[in-house]
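Private note to self, pasted from the team thread so I don't lose it. Backbone tokens:
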């Protein structure tokens, strides 16, 4: 009985640890490279992030009123309906994190593209770099 409990615990730990990518990388721009496209087609676990085709800042400020949004495009290159969640940070030229958050896209069908946007509290886009600090794609039910 004790051996069965140990096996169940080990399987749960492996399953929970294997489902997400917690490394920090730069956010993708609007252009997609051929290499990223090939990785997305094979849908290896580390290539799930390639489904986030673009993630960038959109400065809609006008008439002296700051209005900066995050905009993204997700393309589901898997063979099943998927949910996406990712964590991000905005870092200024000096390396200081000036904002961070989490975004979600749900029920994206195979081959479907989903676009989203979200407002920020940033005062400027000058010198700001977006990083993806965590990314996860899961099957949607």
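Design output:
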């Amino acid at each position: 009985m004790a051996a069965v409990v140990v096996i169940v615990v080990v399987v749960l730990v492996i399953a929970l640890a294997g489902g997400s990518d917690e490394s920090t990388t730069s956010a993708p721009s609007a252009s997609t490279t051929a290499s990223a496209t090939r990785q997305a087609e094979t849908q290896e676990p580390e290539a799930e992030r390639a489904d986030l085709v673009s993630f960038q800042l959109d400065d809609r400020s006008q008439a002296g009123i700051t209005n900066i949004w995050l905009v993204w495009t997700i393309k589901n290159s898997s063979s099943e309906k998927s949910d996406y969640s990712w964590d991000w940070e905005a870092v200024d030229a000096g390396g200081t994190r000036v904002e961070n958050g989490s975004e979600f896209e749900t029920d994206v069908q195979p081959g479907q593209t989903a676009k989203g946007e979200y407002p920020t509290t940033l005062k400027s886009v000058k010198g700001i770099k977006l990083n993806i600090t965590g990314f996860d794609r899961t099957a949607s039910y």
